Amino acid sequence: MDDENSPAVLSRWTAILIAVLAMVTALAVGHLVAALTDPDASPFVAVGDSVRDLSPPAVTEFAISDLGEAKKPLLFGGIAAMLLVLATVAGLLSRRRPWPGLALATVVGVVGLLAVLDQYDVDTVGLLAPVSSLVAGAATFGWLHRLAASGLTRPADTSRRRFLWTGAGVAVGAAAFGGLGQVLAGRVDVEASRAGVGALTPSVPAPPIPATADFGTPRFITSNRDFYRVDTALLGVPQVRAQDWLLRVHGLVDEPRTFTFNDIRARRLVERTITMTCVSNQVGGGYVSTANFVGVPLRDLLDETGVRSGSDQLFSTSVDGWTAGTPVEAVLDRDRGALLAIGMNGEPLPTEHGFPARMVVPGLYGFVSATKWVVDLELTTFDAKRSYWLERDWAREAPIKTQSRIDAPRSFATVPAGPVTIAGTAWAQTVGIDRVEVRVDGGAWRPATLATKVNDQTWRMWRVEITLGPGTHTAEVRATDRTGRTQPRQRVAPIPDGATGWHSRQFTVG
Ligand SMILES: Nc1nc2c(c(=O)[nH]1)N[C@H]1C(S)=C(S)[C@@H](COP(=O)(O)O)O[C@H]1N2
Ligand SMILES: [Mo]
């Protein structure tokens, strides 16, 4: 270093290693401090959320509907890869002097800080995580850099060993910090809170599902485990304990009110069997499921607060800031029976499905109605406020479209010769299914047998037995609802208000 003739230049690998270790330390410290103070303020998570929000709608749509659960590892993997590239650059720029790397580390740290500020309503305590992340990263970088540079003036062997041991120590320390942060972040014990809710016994249970309503392809009631899931939450779903939950009802009402979980569960609970559907569901897709939801009619809550004339939108907000805009008319419609649900299939709502409370509005796609972890209901107008997906080019009006799906035989299955059972489900929430027809290889449409109807808010199972010759066949299905409308053949993509088209399946009779 002090030798004018041979300026201290770190080897490339040493320089990169220093920068990567500093970055990992910064992330780990940020994660741990966030867990100790405000789990929402973890800079890494906040950057992920900001990337999601700044992405063009088409990208977000693709990520949510086509990548499903893979979106999280992909997003965070992408950010990690980007950070690795930045660390490499910072390292290579800092082979002589630490300043360029420190400057770059500071910029990255500030980006993390801005992301946290952008994403959350953080108080001063919440800023501790991004700030300590920045400081820890810069300090580690400076320290390791000094250590490595000073080693250049000492006998190679001892200094290299010393540097490697220190580096390994930093890596282990960072892993421990990060791991501890991860454990502590999960500390909000929502499972204990769920267990504490105990049995939710409805005063008005849903009528039992008759055996003749269930052909088994698929099962009529979807288990909580198998129930489809769609949410924008990236690193784990919101963790809200029942005792911490409050629901505010306000806006164009006569008397604003705030409900606690105990207020809700002490009311007269009703149980309703409802089929939920996601607008992102492709023809033949699995984003449709049925459950027995327990809760209070949303109409009852709104009757108590009063709804002023002129309010046409119920604007609901979840604890993670997601929003939906539901027509007030649909929410107040007695026949439809919209719920503030706290139970699902005999247990408190699973955390992923919105514990402690969510909205369920039969007949409307989830993105305009099914707010999970709901904490705020504002009576307003569609002119005044725009909800999450409306801002991202999806529709304002989103009634569920009549659809049908083939579930058996499985795609490309080989079935034994003899009569083949083709079976599946069809739905036309609020009006009900009138008939389902199947045709094979473009032949004549044949009526399928419908299972017993449960109610107009649920799907309906169907099946038909057809004898086919050996070889490969294509079956198609179409449903007609009770308004007399038959599903159009034309394939339309989910965006902006739901897919249409006939589902078809290929299989072989062997
Ligand atoms: N807070 C929150 N609520 C949400 C969403 C979300 O991303 N965040 N997704 C909505 C969408 S698009 C659908 S289809 C349903 C899915 O509910 P489920 O995951 O319980 O099936 O929840 C709705 N409620
Ligand atoms: Mo959805």
From TrEMBL:
Gene3D superfamilies named in the record: 2.60.40.650, Oxidoreductase, molybdopterin-binding domain (3.90.420.10)
Organism encoding this protein: Actinophytocola xinjiangensis
InterPro entries given in the database record: Ig_E-set, MoCF_OxRdtse_dimer, OxRdtase_Mopterin-bd_dom, OxRdtase_Mopterin-bd_sf
PANTHER family, per the entry: SULFITE OXIDASE, MITOCHONDRIAL, SULFITE REDUCTASE
An individual GO BP term: sulfur compound metabolic process
Transmembrane segments: 12-34, 74-94, 101-120, 126-144, 164-185
Record's protein name: Molybdopterin-binding protein
Keywords annotated in UniProt: Membrane, Transmembrane, Transmembrane helix
Molecular functions per Gene Ontology: heme binding; molybdenum ion binding; molybdopterin cofactor binding; sulfite oxidase activity
Segments of this protein annotated with the region Disordered: 478-510
Residue span(s) of domain Moybdenum cofactor oxidoreductase dimerisation: 402-492
Domain Oxidoreductase molybdopterin-binding: 236-389
